[in-house]
Amino acid sequence: MLEYIARRTLLIIPALLFVSIISFSMVYLAPGDPAEILLTSPEGTPSPAAVEAFRVRMGLDQPIYVQYLRWLNNILHGDFGYSYMSERPVFDAIFKSFKATLKLSIVSMFISVIVSIPLGILAAIKHNSATDDLCRLGALVGVSIPNFWQAFLLILLFSIYLDWLPVAGYGDGGDLRHMILPAITLGTSSAAVTTRLMRSSMLEALSQDYIITARAKGLSEKVVVGKHALKNALIPVVTMLGLNLGFLLNGAVVTEWIFGWPGIGGLVVDSIYQRDYTMIQGSILFIAVIFVTLNLIVDISYTYLDPRIRYEAKD
Amino acid sequence: MSHLEISNLRVRFPTDDGVVRVTNGVDLDIEEGENLGLIGESGSGKTVLGMAIVRLLPGDAKIEGTIRFNGRDLLSLNEAEMRSIRGREIVMILQNPTNSLNPVLTIGSQIEEAVRLHSELDKERAKKKVVELLEEVGIRSAARRAKEYPHQFSGGMKERAMIAMALASDPSLIIADEPTKGLDVTIKRRVVKLIKEVTKTKSMLFITHDLGSAAEICDRIAVMYAGEILEIAGTEDLLNDPLHPYTKGFLDSLPSRGLKPIPGMGPSLIDLPSGCKFHPRCDRAMKLCKREDPPMIQKENGRRVRCFQYA
Fold first, then answer.
1. Domain check: are A234 and A104 in the same one?
2. pLDDT tens-digit map of B135-147
3. Does some domain include residue A3?
4. Which domains does chain B have, with CATH numbers?
5. Within the 139-168 window of chain A, which residues sit less than 8 Å (CB to CB) from chain B?
């Protein structure tokens, strides 16, 4: 078991190296020179000498592999560099945005889970009934409705007509009142997909012979469904929830934008517009680390849910 | 009063293609401590009959008739009452242990569930009892094995674990559905021996198409065909002197007796033949067989046979 975790953890290193190379070189392929963009003022284009001076100061005159190795070395020492634009440390900006995104992701994930898991189970045990149809319809609507549209509807209803919640903004460090609407928006599609998966996965589990064994023992339906079927049915659901959380943590740009939520998605998009190389590179690497770590956690939790994987890994 | 008394049991499943008549008026009884074998080809309704007794058939099944267990009609009980009998007094060992054990729970915890559900034992004593049960069915280093998962058990060991689970509540009646299916010969022999041993003081309905195993375990054997019982007799009588043409054909089709198959195929349960269900394949069929349903005819030694030849 420990060996399995260690091996999976080691596999992260090449993955991250690969991401770092891609993210580093990608920005050089994009048109536009940060020196020119930064130095361009309303008065006109900067002089070639000023541009050159900026490039030397930032190390942009060096060959790309030298820049990459220097950057990598700094990052390994915990230094993500300074933003070209704000001249503040990149890591601080990333960390601040990530905190906002993390808060939002956790709340929307929470909403999604407490809605989808019970609904999926309910739909499965009431298979082919009106309840099931209703759950399926709800899930279909939830998957189909675009985030931006749902966000506007929520704002219209709760902020404008009812005036219960703020329209947008981060509020006092991202308080719950400001978080509710974006969290519901983000949670809806995730809840819809999870409900459908939970339902089909539960139906599959309930049709297995071991369910008849459980019933034949005289167990109550509560135990049959809640223990014997659920433990099997959750395996694919946990994987999907993990991936979902990964996507949320990478920043749901559109939703964050609509609600003026200062998350990490917006940070990346802004820095791309500004050709803020250090910020783009730093945040993409950061996002990659989060994603890969989350995947690792999902994989490990998988082995706890499914003993068959645990022992295959031993061989 | 028999331990289990089934009379005129009919199970039907409505489907899009028509009503599937799986059992058609089955009468069977098992005496206290008796092992009754139920043999027949695949699709003859054996498993459905077993499942009907513990009421584990899917909800769309239409069940008629009576199933009396110690005099109580099981079909008239509500689900809560049934649950106090199912798994406690009547236990079913399902076929195919690989699929019948939950892959994500340890063998021990699956047996422990059955132990704790039907006794007042606390967790620790229940765990001890699980190890005892596993030892009783011949699993070595049982304490360690109890912590393992089904995929770490071989086919024969899984079958033993299923038997241990069945014994957990010390039931008085065991319904074993093809417990020897898919096991190789030596392991099958050992499992049969084990079943014989553990059911010494219990009643059992032993469902199988393996006549050899049935002969070893059962006191009496019932032959099922197209949802009907065609013949019931003591094991010796049935093997040495089968009465019904189908029973004769079944015995002749065994490898040890010449491997002569019965011509034709089992009938569709949606469109059953008129009269005797076996007449289209019977070499001794008369005109009467096609027209009328043969009654169950009483013979000496408590034998019964459903055939006009003996009328």
1. yes
2. 999 999 999 999 9
3. no
4. 4-89+174-187+203-310 (3.40.50.300), 97-170 (no CATH)
5. none
Residue B182: band (very low, low, confident or very high) from pLDDT cuts 50, 70, 90: confident
Cβ distance B86 to A218 less than 8 Å, yes or no, reads yes
Q: Which of B104, B153, B159 to mutate to test the interface with A (most CBs of A within 10 A)?
A: B104
- pLDDT, tens digit (0-9, with 9 covering 90-100), for B204-244: 999 998 888 999 999 999 999 999 999 999 999 999 999 99
Do A115 and A228 lie in a common domain?
yes
- Determine if residue B25 is left, alpha or beta; phi over 0 gives left, psi from -120 to 50 gives alpha, anything else beta: left
In a domain, A64, yes or no: yes
- Give tens-digit pLDDT for B95-110: 888 999 999 999 999 9
Q: How far is A118 from chain B (nearest CA, A)?
A: 21
Residues of B whose CB is below 8 A from A308: 103, 149, 151
Structure-model confidence comparison of residues A315 and B307, the more confident one: B307
- Is residue B19 scored above 80 in pLDDT? yes
A208 and A138 in a common domain: yes
Domains identified in chain A, total number:
2
CA angle B75, B80, B81 (to 5 degrees): 55
CB contact under 8 A, B117 and A218: yes
Are A238 and A302 contacting, i.e. CB atoms less than 8 angstroms apart?
yes
Percent of the residues in chain B that have a pLDDT greater than 70, as a whole number: 100
* Statement to judge: residues A75 and A174 lie in one domain: no
Residue A65 belongs to a domain: yes
Same domain flag for A53 and A162: no
Say if residue A137 is exposed, middle or buried (CB neighbours under 10 Å; 0-12, 13-18, 19+): exposed
Same-domain pairing of A49 and A105: no
Interface of A with B in 234-273 (CB under 8 A): 235
Kindly state whether A303 is in contact with chain B, defined as any CB-CB distance less than 8 angstroms. Answer: no
Q: How far is A228 from chain B (nearest CA, A)?
A: 7
Tokens of A65: 């592999």
Does residue A256 sit within a domain?
yes
Residue B118's pLDDT band (boundaries 50, 70, 90)? confident
My answer on whether A58 and A105 are in the same domain is no
Q: Which residues of B touch A216 (CB under 8 A)?
A: 54, 56, 86-87, 91-92, 94
CATH number (domain holding residue A295) = 1.10.3720.10
Residue with tokens 């930032």: A58
Range of the domain at A74: 35-79
Looking at the structure, tell me whether residues A61 and A127 fall in a common domain.
no
A46, A79, A112 — which closes off a domain? A79
Q: Which pLDDT value is given to residue A140?
A: 93
Q: Which of B121, B122, B141 is nearest to B131 (CA)?
A: B141
Q: A52-108, pLDDT tens digit by residue? A: 888 887 777 888 888 889 888 888 888 888 887 788 898 999 999 999 999 999 999
Residues of B in Cβ contact (< 8 Å) with A228: 102, 105
Q: Does A306 touch chain B (CB under 8 A)?
A: yes
